[in-house]
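Tokens for chain A. Residues wanted.
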């Protein structure tokens, strides 16, 4: 398994940590070897965070430092919401809409992995809705109204 280089971007933490655990952490290596591997897979802010841990006996401290700074679920969720908000609105072309949907779905899957279900979350839905072209917004409203009217008739 390839371990991606981690630079401190919270949205990349889970992918990095799972790959590192299966490739290095769970192997029968000394803590000095694990620390050396860990440092080799870090860049930027993440590398800076564990600077000064030079001995294998501080491997667990280095891991804990990274987990505290980059592995907190609420911080990661916030980063994904920010990333979702930063997605460029699609044009009306099929290709542009497809890219938009893929980007949104990717972020939503990652949020679900963290235990945050974006389905039915008004702030997430509003964020996505506001990025859609007007024609698609109208279709969404019609669909919601049909669904709501169907629900009322069933009662």
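Reply:
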């Amino acid at each position: 398994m390839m371990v991606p280089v981690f630079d401190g971007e919270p949205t990349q933490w889970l992918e990095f940590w799972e790959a590192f655990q299966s490739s290095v952490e769970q192997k029968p290596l000394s803590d000095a070897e694990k620390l050396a591997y860990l440092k080799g897979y870090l860049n930027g802010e993440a590398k800076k965070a564990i600077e000064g841990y030079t001995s294998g006996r501080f491997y667990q401290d280095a891991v804990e430092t990274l987990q505290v700074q980059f592995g907190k679920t609420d911080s990661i969720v916030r980063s994904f919401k920010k990333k979702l908000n930063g997605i460029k609105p699609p044009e009306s072309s099929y290709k542009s809409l497809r890219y938009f949907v893929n980007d949104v779905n990717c972020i939503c899957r990652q949020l679900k992995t963290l235990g945050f279900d974006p389905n039915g979350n008004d702030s997430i839905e509003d964020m996505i809705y506001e990025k859609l072209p007007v024609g698609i917004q109208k279709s969404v409203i019609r669909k919601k109204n049909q669904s709501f009217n169907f629900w009322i008739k069933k009662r």
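Residues 10-70 form one domain. The radius of gyration is 21 Å.
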